[in-house]
Write a structure and sequence with these properties.
With about 180 residues, the protein is α+β, with helices and mostly antiparallel strands. The chain contains 4 helices and 7 strands; from the N terminus they run H-H-H-H-E-E-E-E-E-E-E. The strands form 3 sheets. It has a 3-stranded antiparallel beta sheet. Strands 1-2 form a two-stranded antiparallel ribbon. Strands 6-7 form a two-stranded antiparallel sheet.
């Protein structure tokens, strides 16, 4: 019976050893409260990477869209200018000042154009949206900032009263004769 008691005591000691909790080290809970779980850190890095990618692609996409809008605006103004030149050929040929003034007023009415000027073949202003310059030689009213040419349409950039503006010009021809 003595050997059996020793055996049961050993079992008891082993059971007690596993069932007891190890007391936490001092300051352990304070350290654990300040730690951020690894899954949260990985999620934050992924979200930051995705947001950075979106911002960069959005910036370049916006720049590209702005350029496409600029080109579309140039194309539409060029189309309007070609139509305007085709419309004023006959009144300019017949020196019909009233028809030219009406067409000029229609062009400036929408507010898309700062000024519209119709010159004769010598460069003298026949019709201008500001009537004070009529009959004088045409001089651009802004500071030239660049120029280009696309077909018959001449494009120059001017600075008018601190605002950048595009100046489109196109010769008016009728049967290979320049009218203005």
């Amino acid at each position: 019976p003595l050997g059996s008691d020793t055996h049961s005591i050993t079992k008891m000691a082993v059971r007690m050893e596993f069932s007891e909790k190890v007391p936490p080290k001092p300051g352990h809970e304070e350290r654990m409260q300040g730690r951020i779980p690894l899954s949260l850190k990985v999620s934050a890095v992924l979200v930051s990477f995705i947001l950075l990618t979106l911002v960069i692609s959005g910036f370049f996409g916006l720049k590209r869209a702005k350029h496409a809008l600029y080109l579309a605006k140039l194309k539409s103004v060029e189309t309007v200018l070609v139509h305007f030149v085709n419309t004023i050929r006959i009144p300019l040929l017949g020196d019909d000042t009233l028809s030219l003034a009406i067409l000029n007023n229609e062009m400036t009415k929408g507010g898309n154009f700062l000024y519209v000027t119709i010159l004769d073949s010598k460069g003298i202003i026949k019709i201008h949206s500001d009537s004070s310059g009529k009959g004088t030689a045409f001089r651009p009213s802004g500071v030239p900032a660049g120029a280009g040419e696309k077909g018959q349409v001449k494009l120059s950039t001017l600075v008018l009263e601190g605002v950048r503006a595009l100046d489109f010009s196109m010769p008016v021809t009728f049967k290979e004769k320049t009218l203005g």
